[in-house]
Amino acid sequence: MRLSASVLTAMASSFAVCRLHMRGRVVLVRSLQKADTFLQRSIGTDVAAAQAEAPPRDGSDEKDGCKSLHALQVERQEQAERSVLINCQSRTNEKKFLKYLSNHGDIKKYFFYESYGLYAVVEFAKRENVASLLEGAVIPSVSHESTVPFKSRLLSLRNLSLVDLSNQQSGLQCQPQTTIPINEFIQRLSKEESIDQQITSLTEAYQLTEENSRLRFLVCSLLKDIAAAYFPECTIKPFGSSVNGFGKLGCDLDMFLDLDGISGRNVKMPKSGLSLEYQMKRANSERAVTQSILSVIGECVDQFGPGCVGVQKILNARCPLVRFAHQPSGFQCDLTANNRVAMKSTELLYLYGQLDPRVRSLVFTVRCWARAHGVTSSIPGAWISNFSLTVMVLFFLQKRSIPIIPTLEHLRDLAGPADKSVIEGNDCTFVSDFSKIQLKSNTETLEQLLCEFFEFYATFPFSRMSLNIRKGKEQNKPEVAPLHIQNPFETSLNVSKNVNATQLDRFVALCQESSWLLQQRETNTPRGGANMTTAWGLATLLLPSQVAGIKSRKKRRREPASERIKGLLESLKNKNQPKTS
Ligand code: GTP
Ligand code: MG
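A: This is the predicted complex of the input protein with guanosine-5'-triphosphate.
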């Protein structure tokens, strides 16, 4: 038997360890907040786990304990290549299962989760182990249907002898891949002792877990196996909230089909002598190439991709994409190609999130608050997007009297020659070496920042001004859109062009309400005594709003803010009065 020692230990105490890590994470985050220093964490992972498991690195991408997004992607992709996803029977015997798999090599890490059935993610020590496992796997025999003979690393466990019938309850510990609904979480929040703790607790409960992050990279890797049939050197990388540090459990999986290794973009032409070049089909534009690649890959995903359902090719969008659900993981997936600016935005957001732990906490809280009030939505429309909302938080943090994060222009000025990046004529250069960034010593608490955030946007002159994180300054609006947020890299574009006046008004009204609630003693202090679960602080902000129904500017003008606030206070007082009947 070749079960590694680490797996045996993990089997004995997998959950105890997990709980310890969780506790460690709480202590870590809190102490870092106090120290106002770098948050040494990887994508949704705790530091101890990441360091213990990380393969040796050359260190070139790592400064002051902060890994660049690029280094993280490389590490996670490599892990994913050595991993398989197995659909298990619900009463699978964990020990026998691992013993069986370990016939193919050492297992470095594994975990179970539930999503339309029980699944196991198993990471082997070497790629050869996966090849050996796949060699031993058989094509299923189905009587009334046929199968597409496409072999992938998504497998099903069929050996009945591994089902432990003597033990009806398998006792397998499943790692959660979803979170509890916000209205249930509100009660838990109300038991915290300060608003800062509430914010930290919300962030910890809703952020991506180590396991969820691994699963995201594994799905990308499985997809890459399909695309590799045409483009063997391609990679598929996650971007957006799956990796920028602001992802909530259950967020979509944005993927980028990276063909740079093949496209010749980074290849140097020989200056003299003979050389050969590939003959290649030509197209009218880069967009046309992207569309045809996505069309073909989308077709393969639809026809051959195990577990991929509801495939839609949305090729005429500004950014062409293939959308589908990956059933075994439960992820809603968006596959794009040639989307390098979005990858840069992801890197930038990740960098800002790493600079100070308050950035992640505040973005997280504002994202959850916005979702609870329907300011953002998973359905496309005239809503503010999570990306826009994140840029709004970053802008606010740049605008503090002692700025918490630097402007993008400053980050560009700190960049070295290797950081230079121009994509389709847009300057996407910014520093990647975290140690070059000097932060100012702002000591504001999360509570202060949250309150000030709402106040800032409750009174922001949206009708005249645009938000610009390159300069960290508002500027005159170049166009008439209700909300104008300059795209950080494609500076002539407005990232919130889709937002209509009604949605902006709702956002402003909710900011006014939340700012006011955080200033009231009735709502900003914990309720002691027996009635500990009465909503207070952040929990109050997540409850249904009294003002969210506001339809238009006209209606708001007729009813001054002070009147609405008075009404709100009255309703709060009534709510807290003991019931007499
Ligand atoms: P979720 O709502 O949790 O999925 O957040 P997200 O940050 O992943 O947003 P979304 O899935 O809408 O977009 C994915 C990524 O694409 C973002 O993180 C950005 O990097 C980029 N992106 C989205 N919208 C825009 C936009 O309007 N302009 C630019 N430049 N990039 C965008
Ligand atoms: Mg996304």
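Residues 240-241, 251-252, 254 surround magnesium ion (ligand 2) (CB under 6 Å). The chain is about 40% helix and 10% strand.
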